[in-house]
C-alpha cells in the first residue's frame, strides 16, 4: 500500500477518493487507475479492519480452521485478515 501511494499527488488522491465514494453511492465502481488508487488508500484498509474485527469476535471458534474459501471479497482484504487471525491455515 505504501509503495503504491507514496509517489501520488495527495490532492489528486483526495479527489479520486471523493469521486470513488460518489460512484459507489450511484452503484458504479472502479473504472480508472485513480479509482484503484483511491480504493487502496481509503476502502481497502477499512475493509481489512472490519473483517479483522469480525475475526477477533469469533476467535474462540477459529482454532481448528485449516482451510478457507474466499468467494470474491475484493483484493485480498479477507485473505490478509484471515491469515493474521488463523496462522494455522493451510490453504
Précis, in short:
This protein has 91 residues and is mostly helical. The chain has four helices and no strands. 59% of the residues lie in helices and 0% in strands.
Overview of the molecule:
This protein has 91 residues and is mostly helical. 59% of the residues lie in helices and 0% in strands. It has 4 helices and no strands. The longest helix has 25 residues, at 33-57. It is elongated.
Write the layout of secondary structure elements.
Layout: H1 2-5, H2 10-25, H3 33-57, H4 77-85
Helix pairs in contact: 2-3, 3-4
Gyration radius from CA atoms, angstroms = 16 Å
Number of strands: 0
Based on CA inertia axes, which overall geometry fits?
elongated
Structural class: mainly alpha
Keywords:
mainly alpha; elongated; 59% helix; 0% strand; 91 residues; single chain; 4 helices
